[in-house]
Amino acid sequence: MNHDINVLALAYLGDAIYECHIREYLIRKGYVKVKELQTQAILYVSAKNQCKFLKQMIDANYFSEEELDIVYRARNHKSHKSPKNTDVATYKYATGLEALIGYLYLEKREERIKQIMNDIVGE
Questions:
Q1: Domains, the chain, ranges and CATH?
Q2: Which of these is catalytic: 15, 59, 69, 87?
Q3: Is 87 a catalytic residue?
Q4: Which residue among 35, 82, 106, 114 is the one 20 to 30 A from 20 at the CA level?
């Protein structure tokens, strides 16, 4: 894949893919009421929790060099957007995770996305 794609565009795509995986997971777990779904989703889709998951995976040497490159490029990208409800560092880590998911999706590496998502939700 072309590594020149803007990492924020990858994060934009990755955010949608990530959230779709979480929503599917929660519905399969038996959550059917929208309020329950929204409450449970926050445990996975908030910047704070995405940052936590990503840091744990980095500490466990979970990612390949190629994957880490995407994560760090996104995390270190200068953004003009100020995050809502979190600090800049946390937001940038969450952006790194989303960019990685977006990158893997464009690379047609759905099995790797599934593996990452399963590890995030503890399955």
A1: 7-121 (1.10.1520.10)
A2: 15
A3: no
A4: 82
